[in-house]
Design brief:
single chain, 160 residues, mainly alpha, 2 domains, 6 helices
């Protein structure tokens, strides 16, 4: 072991003892946190900031699954935008009763399903829309599961 390594281990041992002493001085984390934040986190000292960055857990950005999730979210956003805009039309046209509202939408949509462009593409649009939404949902659940595991919240099967 070189002299530098011995010296480094000595300093780390003293630092560990100082940390123990500091945590014993303050009974709760709430009392200790402001002191540490003021002394280390808000310090303008380059070496202190470097030390703090070594201790902080860094999560690499997740690229896996981002594209399917983004596509699912865009499809959902498009659907909600279309439905939202369609819901504004009756209000702008002065339709005030539920019966007028129902008549308006049945007259506007029925021709599209009987002979319009939606007639041929409805099954394909339905399948694509449903598949993208489900894919986005599964990736969101997978991402949530990873986040819970990183937080230490893992469900253990009970042993009967």
């Amino acid at each position: 072991m070189s002299t530098d390594e011995k010296g480094g281990e000595e300093v780390v041992s003293r630092l560990t003892l100082d940390i123990k002493a500091l945590t014993l001085l303050y009974e709760t984390d709430e009392e200790l946190r402001p002191i540490i934040e003021k002394s280390l986190l808000e310090a303008q000292d380059e070496h202190a900031m470097r030390f703090v960055s070594l201790l902080q857990k860094r999560r690499p950005p997740e690229r896996e699954g981002s594209i399917p999730m983004a596509v699912g979210e865009m499809v959902l956003a498009s659907f909600l935008t279309i439905v939202g805009l369609a819901a504004f039309v009756p209000v702008v046209n002065g339709i005030t009763t539920p019966q007028q509202w129902l008549d308006y939408f049945s007259n506007a949509i029925a021709p599209s399903f009987s002979s319009g462009p939606l007639y041929q593409g409805a099954p394909l649009l339905d399948f694509t829309f449903a598949a993208l939404l489900l894919l986005g949902a599964f990736y969101s659940l997978r991402s949530a599961s990873k986040n819970l595991k990183q937080a230490g919240l893992v469900a253990e099967p009970s042993g009967n």
